[in-house]
User: Fold these one by one.
Assistant:
Number 1:
Amino acid sequence: MTELRMPKTFADEMVEHCIHGKPQEACGLLAARDGRVVQVFRMTNASASPVRYSLDPKEQFAVYEKIESEGWELGGVFHSHTHTEAYPSPTDVRMASEDVPYVIVSLAQEPPSIRAFRIVKQNWMDSEGSIEEIAVSIEG
Ligand SMILES: [Zn+2]
């Protein structure tokens, strides 16, 4: 995937979830079809932290089942940065465990910025990897 297309209503829903989660980081999943977001899943930040996030495994499993049953694809894993730019932190790179778009919503400026990245590692256990940006186009 080189581009993630997102109808504005879903971008707004994702940002709203992130704002609602402050001062902690918020997170969630995006379902997509053919690279276009079709649903936003608001998830619990199981880390309940202002500087890191983790998905709740039970919630994550339920969403993966839903995506599978609908014939969708995992469009991305999103989380917020409350005070820093929309770019993967060293922790984000260390914690990356899948070749999926990692979408970051920065609330550090108004309006919030939304960017997406692929994090490529030789081995998912590695703490470092390379970061490739995926274009995000907000539609409508
Ligand atoms: Zn982060």
Note: Residues 3-139 form a domain with the Cytidine Deaminase; domain 2 fold (CATH 3.40.140.10).
Number 2:
Amino acid sequence: MTVNRRILLVRRPHGMPMADDFAIVEGPVPEPAEGEMLIRTLYLSVDPYMRGRMNDARSYVPPFALNEVVEGGVIGQVVASRHTAYRAGDIVVGTLGWADYNLSDGRGLRRLDPSAAPITAALGVLGMPGLTAYVGTLDIGRVQTGETFVVSAAAGAVGSVAGQIAKIHGCRVVGIAGSDEKCRWVTEELGFDAAVNYRAAGSLVAALREACPNGVDVYFDNVGGDVTDAVLPLLNDFARIALCGQIALYNLEKPDMGPRNWSYLLIHRATLQGFIVRDHAHRAGQAYADLARWIQEGRIRWREHIVEGLENTIDAFLGLFRGDNIGKQLVKVADPA
Ligand SMILES: NC(=O)c1ccc[n+]([C@@H]2O[C@H](COP(=O)([O-])OP(=O)(O)OC[C@H]3O[C@@H](n4cnc5c(N)ncnc54)[C@H](OP(=O)(O)O)[C@@H]3O)[C@@H](O)[C@H]2O)c1
């Protein structure tokens, strides 16, 4: 390939992002300078947090610059190297541009061993979402045997792994997801004890009450909004909420009202802790070792929702907000050489 396509953010979205907020531009494939390598994108990750970076707002990461390439998790193959530590053919993962090709000086990259695990796992269960699930369930949620653990966006990259980790630690695990197919997947294949389709449940509180006869000890919140409002009345005394994501709010044009039912946190002396995975990088070694072992033992399963073609990246990203994905949403850009 001699053309490099790059996806730029050209306008800050208001509400749900639109295709016109981005542009796909073509240019020549760049040449690595001394100390650099040229990496061909094989898979790229679209992640809900990237929506926040499209706003011009203070957050835990700086906003994407306008008219610059959008950056996210990428698995790529080194095609030319002037870097002493990497050779052509190496498969790497790191934060790179939504593009066919990227240059890198190696900072923030990790070499993958394709014989150890399917390479795509490095963007999912053995990557950032897996670490998020691990830290949120064990360090923030502090799950204990016999407790009831509820997770929203249960069939997504983070939620599906979080629920399985809680199950391994002896919890009753209840998922909340947006379709019957997702609910079937988490109960029949992942071993959750129950799942509630929040789009189909008449009263979500009533459906959750039935699924959680002993109340809720740990709530792993990926979505916020109405779903979380329905969980709070079920909290037990000294419950923990691991506040991981608020995807239901990311595209709101005005700040949302509520939650108004915080008195449940007071009554039940609950702890709500927001957390960002990058603050927990020191846990990565243990987390990936445990996750790899649980996968090998057949106690953790995962699934990927793969869209083909760099040109379909924006639609794949928007699909996260429509709930298109079961498991980790990825875009396949090229096959390894
Ligand atoms: N704190 C951290 O460091 C950290 C790290 C990674 C991810 N996160 C957060 O964790 C959450 C999950 O991320 P992920 O990568 O695993 O994504 P994901 O769950 O694989 O995909 C997003 C899912 O969210 C659900 N969703 C979308 N809009 C919704 C709405 N309005 N109400 C309820 N559910 C909605 C959809 O599933 P349904 O069909 O079930 O609606 C969709 O499939 C996100 O909020 C993300 O920002 C946080």
Note: The chain has two domains: 3-124+303-332, 128-281+287-295.
Number 3:
Amino acid sequence: MKLSDNTVLITGGTSGIGRALAAQFLARGATVLVTGRSAERLDEVRAALPGVHTFVCDQADPGSVAALCAEVVRAFPDLNVLINNAGIGLKLNLNDEARRLEDLEAEIRTNLIGPIQMVQLLLPHLKRQAGPVIVNVSSGLAFVPMPLKPIYCATKAAMHSYTQSLRAQLKATPVRVVELAPPAVRTAFNAGQEDINVKGAMDVTKFAEAAMRGLGRGRDEVLPGLTPVLRLIGRLNPRALIRAAEAERMGAAGAPRRP
Ligand SMILES: NC(=O)c1ccc[n+]([C@@H]2O[C@H](COP(=O)([O-])OP(=O)(O)OC[C@H]3O[C@@H](n4cnc5c(N)ncnc54)[C@H](OP(=O)(O)O)[C@@H]3O)[C@@H](O)[C@H]2O)c1
């Protein structure tokens, strides 16, 4: 994709990857729109990234997503790039009988249903633009399930699958569809989860620079950092992280630990 002359909507731009991508696009002269759930956090982004436009939107709420899409198309008729970035990733123990179904569904609504709804509502508009691009942010964990984050990995595997089908269905249209699959990146996303995967996590600015290089090269799949390794593991040894979790549960002495 071309990296200049864009009007870019980035969901989840109050921190981490979304915010770093917003800075990259702003530096290239783009008009940048970011979303988040909290007006205060969006105020902070406006102070840190002068020129950015912000919108309160809860991606897990279909009404909120519909209102956002109507508003941005009305206020920014040149909108040509959608980056479906907002997401949550929860460590969940599925043995926990007290957990409410609504809590389990929140991740699916945020990571999968919200982005699909964004695409559906903005697609008619994007098809009429010059250089339209949809970037879906998945994860290296789309390729290998990690039992500690069962719903998250399922949503990202679904995002990977959906993005491939979307690309195929839009082939005859001007809309390009790109999957951006981050490896572990040091952001708030991993706060409190240092036990999982963040030891070799990538710096978020370096990640955003690598992502921009990949987007600029026009690749269908942009896989910065260690993501290609995860994808290879997913092909050669798809149960690798499941086996590692099982080994960890058994403990060194071979005695099963409590789930
Ligand atoms: N960091 C990693 O290691 C990593 C690895 C692979 C993939 N990813 C993916 O990269 C994307 C960004 O993650 P990140 O690391 O930048 O995480 P982050 O720093 O926690 O940022 C997440 C962003 O999503 C927004 N968000 C969360 N729930 C939302 C909702 N319901 N509605 C609207 N916005 C919402 C947050 O905004 P508010 O909280 O202000 O609403 C925040 O701006 C996610 O899709 C994640 O799955 C991250």
Note: The first strand starts at residue 7 and ends at 10.
